[in-house]
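hiii, so i know i said id send this last week but things got crazy w the move. better late than never?? heres the sequnce for the chain we talked about at the cafe, plus the structure i predicted for it. fair warning i was half asleep when i ran it
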Amino acid sequence: MYYRWREIGNVPTAAGIYAWYMSPEITNSDIDSTIALIEQCRSEGRDSEALDSARQLLDKALFRYMKEDPYTARLSGPLKPTFVGELTHESAISDGLLRRVVANPARLRMIKRIVEGSAPDFSSPLYIGAASNLRTRLLRHKNLIEAADEPSCLVFEDAENDADEHQFCRDKTFAERIRIRRIPPSRLFVVTQAVDGDIATHIDIENILNRLHFPLLGRN
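okay and structure toks below
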């Protein structure tokens, strides 16, 4: 089942699994201003600036939200120096795509229509989780995300054991990553699947799905 941001309270209380997605959006005003700028740059022979305008639009509307967190890497070998450092994700917007957009800026309108309808069928999940009560867990996610200014100040007072506390910390981390990336909550939605069986079944499925799909904001 699909639930938009405003529908999270309608999620069933059953045990199951869930996945968060972001619905991409390119605003008409951004497209209009970018098309005008591209056409002006082209008419004045400023081709590189036209390419930059297309790149900035796509990065602002789409790619910046999906940037991977850095990796910590260590390289070593026999009788070789050891290198340790952070590897950052470099978003690669195709030069060919940019040239085609500059050649025909109106194609941005078709890109907008298709890309905005691409989730979840053509997108990777932001986060995959499991819960014994889907509604309670997802409302917690929603509350943490809405506490965007200071989510780190929130404390889970109902923890009955270390597992509850650990899960709350994971949920809080997810909310903080949403805040850091400035993902608009209104563009988030969740897909749920109730799972019958013993108490561990939905947890096992979550474990498998995380290792199959590697959600961008999930760490398990």
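btw The helical segments are 28-43, 47-61, 95-103, 107-116, 134-146, 162-180, 201-213. thought thatd interest u
miss u guys!!
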